[in-house]
Amino acid sequence: MRFRFSLLTAGVLLAASSAYAQQTVPAQTSKAVSAPVATPSSEQVVKPVVSEVHTIPGMPPVVDAHNIYSEASGPDKISPALAHDLERIYVPNLRGNSVSVINPKTYKVVDTFPVGRSPQHVVPSWDLRTLWVTNNSEGHTDGSLTPINPLTGKPGKAFAVDDPYNMYFTPDGRDAIVVAEAHRRLDFRDPHTMVLKGSVEAPLCEGINHAAFSADGSYAIFTCEFGRYLAKVDTVNRKLLGMLKLSKGGMPQDVLAAPDGHKFYVADMHADGVFIINGDTFKETGFIPTGAGTHGLYPSRDATKLYVANRGSHMVHGPRHSQGSVAVVDVATDKVIKLWPIPGGGSPDMGNVSADGKVLWLSGRFDDVVYAIDLKTGKMRQIPVGAEPHGLTVWPQPGRYSIGHTGIMR
After folding, report:
1. CA-wise closest residue to 184 among 161, 165, 168, 170
2. Is residue 9 part of a domain?
3. Model confidence over 207-234: pLDDT tens digits?
4. Is 389 exposed, middle or buried (0-12, 13-18, 19+ CB in 10 A)?
């Protein structure tokens, strides 16, 4: 993959000892030096980047210390390596054991293909060349990862992988982190072959689920869906750093780093809102009420807004036509500035923003549809898909690399 600049950070991350419930843990960082990471194309101008953020070794530099999403801000930031990828929305149908493929220009399903049992998310790889379908095979032992070629939109041969509910990539690109939800475990794997390299046990993290990474990549915060906890993990030394119990609610879902990469937003489906967490001190600092069944979190392309999908129900398997909505939060003030109810009721769940920042694509989890939401007007289209659509991804997306989930790009 080609970048607009070249820099390789190097250094040493201090090891941190494990800690447990309600304990705060200081952040770990490392210092960086300049070195090339990729050969740019002849059209690109190479400018050395001097970053204020000292990243972990091998991680591309943070160009803007105030906005870790600066390199995913719009279509002009799409990597040249993605020039021939199909423009598609890939929708995993959890109960349909399939993926629906939508052409975003026509708002129509153009393909549907079978995958493994219980597909949960479609996850762009760190190098942006594979889209992985995480088939965790709920209640069974035949979990798998199905690769999709973004050039053709077609699936390849599946990899047998234990319980891949979700998947992330360390910001240095060295490891895939398979979130083995049923085992309360994180499996660090080779990002291409998926061979297991090591694991982190999180025994108090029942339903370990979603994650977000700090600005420097040294730690990640994972949510524990069925335990009211958050887990902080050292991404370099593969250690559990601590656990934090939330003050209320009890069903933390998606988590997203704020533009500064130190503050974190945590959606809680029982609390009906978003907790604010200081990731460095690992303490809860605030709460934003957003709507019933708060679930998914996505930044706007300019990183000034946070789009919050409120699923409309507190139930894991909720009813159709719930009181679902999308809240728009101003990142500068952490206040809700708009609220868009789903017409006729619905269940907005997971997805992402289009490359141009104009449309928010979300699965309608219990209504077997996908919502395409105009981010200027709030007007919505509904597209029928398979049974119980979950973590859809929008492709292609701007950014240098993916840290996983439904395409959190940097």
Report:
1. 165
2. no
3. 999 999 999 999 999 999 998 999 999 9
4. buried
Which residue stretches of the chain have pLDDT < 70? 1-50
**How far is the C-alpha of 379 from the C-alpha of 195, rounded, in Å?**
44
Map residue 70 onto helix, strand or coil.
helix
Residues near 43 by Cβ (< 8 Å), separated by ≥ 6? none
C-alpha span between 79 and 128 (Å, rounded): 9
pTM score above 0.70: yes
Q: Which of 243-271 are b and which e, b meaning 16 or more Cβ less than 10 Å from the residue's Cβ?
A: bbebeebbbbbbbbbbbbbbbbbbbbbbb
* Number of alpha carbons in the 13 Å side-chain half-sphere of residue 290: 35
- Three-class SS state of 237: coil
Tell me if the bond preceding 48 is cis, omega within 30° of 0: no
Instruction: Give the whole-angstrom CA distance, residue 342 versus residue 213.
Output: 31
Residue 29 included in any domain? no
Number of domains in the chain: 1
Residue 310 is assigned to a structural domain of this protein? yes
| Any domain includes 256 | yes
Predicted pLDDT at 48: 57
Q: Which two tokens mark 394?
A: 């929008």
Q: Tokens for 318?
A: 């909720």
Count of residues making up the chain: 410
Closest CA relative to residue 207, chosen from 184, 240, 178, 241 = 184
Distance between CA atoms of residues 239 and 251, nearest Å: 24
Structure tokens belonging to residue 253: 């879902």
> In which domain, by residue range, is 101 found?
70-395
Which residue carries 């990474």 as its tokens?
Answer: 213
pLDDT tens, 36-66? 334 334 344 445 565 799 999 999 999 999 9
**Residue 3 has what pLDDT?**
33
**CATH code of residue 94:** 2.130.10.10
The token pair that represents 66 in the structure block:
């105030």
End-to-end CA separation in angstroms for the chain: 14
**pLDDT for residue 50:** 58
CA atoms within 13 A on the CB side of 390: 24
Q: Count of CB atoms within 10 A of residue 98's CB? A: 19
- Please give the single-letter amino acid code of residue 229: Y
Q: How many CA atoms lie within 13 A of 319 on its CB side?
A: 5
C-alpha to C-alpha distance for 358 and 374, rounded to whole angstroms:
6
- pLDDT value for 18: 35
